[in-house]
Specification:
- With 110 residues, the protein is an alpha+beta fold.
- The chain is built from 3 helices and 6 strands; from the N terminus they run αβββαβαββ.
- It has a two-stranded antiparallel sheet. Strands 3-4 form a two-stranded parallel sheet.
- Strand 3, helix 2 and strand 4 form a beta-alpha-beta unit.
- The chain is globular and about 45 Å long.
C-alpha cells in the first residue's frame, strides 16, 4: 500500500482495516469460494528509508514480521525488525528459486 500526504500515522490503520474488509468475504471463481487473508508491512518515508529500494525492503521485512504474528494482520516497520532479520541472515547463504514456465532459476545470495 502506497499513499502520501498522511499527517496522522493512525490513518494507515484505517486504510488497512478497509482492505481487510474487502478480503473478509470469499471470492467466487468458477463456482468455488476462495478465502484470502492479507499480511501487510507498513513503512513511512523518510523515517524507514530514503530510497524506493530501501522502503520496499523494509516493508517486506515488516510484512514477514506480520506473518509471524499470525494471519490477516499488519506490522509497522521498526529498526528492531531490520536488526532481527540481519542477525538471522549473518553468515548464511540464501537460495531463492524463481519459477519460470518449464524452468527453475536458483539465485544464491551470500
Amino acid at each position: 500500500v502506497f499513499s502520501q500526504n498522511i499527517d496522522d500515522i493512525t490513518e494507515y490503520d484505517k486504510k488497512i482495516k478497509k482492505i481487510q474488509k474487502v478480503f473478509a468475504y470469499p471470492f467466487v471463481i468458477s463456482g468455488r469460494e476462495f478465502f484470502v487473508t492479507i499480511s501487510a508491512g507498513i513503512v513511512v518515508a523518510p523515517k524507514d528509508g530514503k530510497t524506493t529500494s530501501l522502503l520496499m525492503r523494509n516493508a517486506d521485512l515488516a510484512m514477514y514480521e506480520a506473518k509471524n504474528m499470525g494471519k490477516n494482520t499488519y506490522c509497522y516497520y521498526e529498526d528492531s525488525i531490520g536488526e532481527k532479520y540481519a542477525q538471522r541472515l549473518e553468515g548464511k547463504t540464501i537460495v531463492k528459486e524463481i519459477y519460470v514456465p518449464k524452468k527453475i532459476i536458483n539465485i544464491v545470495i551470500k
